Amino acid sequence: MDTVDQQTSADWSGPALQAGQPASRDVHFEVEQLYYEEAELLDDGRYVDWLELFADDLDYWMPTRTNRLRRQEAFSVAGRGEAAFYDETKESLAWRIRRFDSGMAWAEDPPSRTRHLVTNVRVRHADPALQEGFTADDLVARSAFLLYRNRLQREEGVYAGRRADVLRRLTDGRLQVARREILLDQNVLLAKNISTFF
User: Fold this and answer.
1) In this structure, are strands 139-151 and 155-169 parallel, antiparallel, or unpaired?
2) Domains contained in the chain, CATH given
3) Spatial distance between the Cα atoms of 120 and 146, rounded to a whole number of angstroms
4) Which pTM was predicted?
5) Alpha carbon of 53 to those of 14, 50, 149: distances in Å?
6) How many whole angstroms separate alpha carbon 24 and alpha carbon 85?
7) Around 67, how many Cα atoms within 13 Å sit in the side-chain half-sphere?
8) How far apart are CA 162 and CA 139, in angstroms?
9) CA of 143: how far to CAs of 89, 108, 133, 190, 192, in Å?
10) Beta carbons of 170 and 194 less than 8 angstroms apart
11) What are the pLDDT digits (tens) for 100-153?
């Protein structure tokens, strides 16, 4: 067992921390619990509480994708400044949440019923050379998700994909999501709209 694995969540910083290295079991468990709490908040419709899991300088991005030949696969996901399902800040997410309560969000009145499943969580310490503005105290977490959505009598949608997060360690020890990139496995949405969070 290497020195990184021997660290506990109470000792998440220190000389044993190395950029790009896997997080300890305790830190990995901490991230999983954060994701399970997030899923519960979303499924319970507690969006204001959910938003508190994010940093003030949040970058929340879900690019579109297209079908490409294998030799062009590197171009299948839209880049920054191109088409995206979500390209949000914490402030714009807060605006969306306020809109839910305004009675003007017809796609969510009556509201959807959702179930967020999160799995395949992998956690590493951030590499400042790759994640600008972050330190090795921060974390990079990748996960897979399955989101089931049901609304009214016959509206159903299933979304599958992956998330790549950068989690910032606050001075009080808590983690907040500072960056989230979401990539759906489907390139054409079969649902009438996309009014759920991932």
Assistant:
1) antiparallel
2) 20-184 (3.10.450.50)
3) 11
4) 0.85
5) 25, 6, 22
6) 34
7) 2
8) 17
9) 21, 26, 22, 23, 26
10) no
11) 877 777 777 788 899 999 999 999 999 988 888 888 889 999 999 999 999 888
